[in-house]
Design goal:
It contains one helix and no strands. The chain has about 30 residues and is mostly helical.
């Protein structure tokens, strides 16, 4: 099982943050 931690300041969460998270989900469980 692969896990990832994506640290950062997400206040506010932007579409750029969402796009990076969405792409990363395919690489990890």
């Amino acid at each position: 099982m692969k896990r990832a931690l994506f640290p950062g300041s997400f206040d506010p969460l932007t579409l750029g943050h969402y796009d990076i998270i969405r792409r990363g989900v395919t690489l990890f469980d």
